[in-house]
Amino acid sequence: MSAPVIRADGLSKVYGHDRGVADLTFEVGEGEVFGYLGPNGAGKTTTIRLLLDLIRPSSGRIELFGSDVRRAGPAARRSLGYLPGDLRLYERLTAREHLRYFASLRGMRDIGDGEALAGRLELELDRPVRSLSKGNRQKVGLVQALMHRPALAVFDEPTSGLDPLVQQVVYELVAEATADGRTVFVSSHVLSEVQHIADRVALIREGRLQLVDSVETLRRRALTRVEVTFATPPPEGAFGHVPGVHEVERRGSVVRLTLEGSADPLVKALGQFEVEALDSHEADLEDVFLEQYRRPADAR
Amino acid sequence: MLGSVFAKSLRDLRRSFVGWSLGLAGYVALIVAVYPTIRDNPDLNKLVESYPEALKAFIAFGGQADFTSAAGYLGSELFAFMIPALFLVASVGNGAGAIAGEEERGTLDLLLSFPRSRTRIALEKLAAMCAEVVGLGVVLWLALWIGARIFGMHVSAAHLGSAVAVLVALAIAYGAIAFMLAAGTGRKTLAVGLTVALAVSAYLVNSLAALVDALEPFRKLSPFYHYVAGDPLREGLDPWHTLFLVALGLVAAVAGVLLFARRDVAP
Predict the structure, then answer these.
(1) For a 10 Å CB count at each end of chain A, is N or C smaller?
(2) CA–CA min distance B3, chain A (Å)
(3) Residue B75 has pLDDT above 50, yes or no
């Protein structure tokens, strides 16, 4: 098997106090969509900027396509597309002029897939960027990051400022990229954004990786949430003894529970009461993450 | 116009170039048009001769201050202060903005994500800065040459060219110093402030050295000394003084590129 597309090994960046990242170790394989999650200020952008050689590690190393980003220099970025989290463009240029400029910096003769991508995102290429909304600017960023069909696309909060319909197009573009065997590294502070597109996710918090796991595994660990509306409020602690069941909240005759494992004991226990409504759904991975957030950062 | 960082940088400078060119040409036209009146006024020259040495040192552009010869007049009115001040404003602004401008506006992250080395990007931006200063030099030279012919000034195109060449070398040297400070720190305003402070000090050291003996040993370190010492409007280009300015620019440029290649870029 070839070298991982991204490999971080003991990667640390110290700045100020409290900021930066510490001892990051992870790998992203070819063709994978890797979700990089964490609250704002956790170190997501710092990691990406280390990956792009915009800042240099205090210790540890980070490799792109098997070579150290610092030592390989521009060659490491040859097949990379980058969408910055805080995208700034040249106010005097149109979207098309941006694409032409960036294409020439990549040594392309034309704007590659730029035209087609802009069409799918409904981006007008000939308007000056200063007249574009935040969402449309973000589209310029997406198009330039994908127009050369990069082997690795690095997206820092890609759907920020985009309306839900366009977000959907972005997810489709990610899916198409990976169908071609390309790799996508996507950061976000909302899990729901990446849980449907990512194969694996990493959670970073206060500069440290809390977990790196496949979405599948995390989902299996997730609980089912059940909301029961009773005709009359059941006695306190009526479900405390039911295996796998945990009472989360009650409001009058509405009781919210979490369920782990088989639903049978809960169904049997509910049989004793008059149930008016029953609603259950698989918990979002959000809950798994919230669980992580609640724990102190160092208890991994 | 968007085929490289160099081309893009030139494109970014074109508006300011047009503005600077018009301003320069207008200013030169004004100064040159007044020349016949000044030349034919012997009292004015007597007045200049009666100035204290300190003042003469400030208004002379190499050699003796005089207002009747074309070289003396252009030297004092244009090359001694106003024109270098204008050229330095243009080049220091460009030099400081080359990298730090994009960094402060937040466009540098994306620019550096392309497969181009930082060294190459910095060199292309520097080249654009030099090209603008050289372009302004050509505009100045043309304006002077045309003006000199119209108003009967006895100064050759070659001597005008020599003065412009030393001026361009001085401006590029300070542009490169501003570039070094800005590309090395990422802070444009700081770089402009420091460079202006350095330029003003160097200017004063050179002008006051004629009067203050204590300054004499430092005079040859002042770029302004090398700018005026060759008396290019009368004597033509002095290779050694020009070389000093070119070397200063090169050293600053190389230092700026190295510093930029090594440091963290601000988010």
Answers:
(1) N
(2) 5
(3) yes
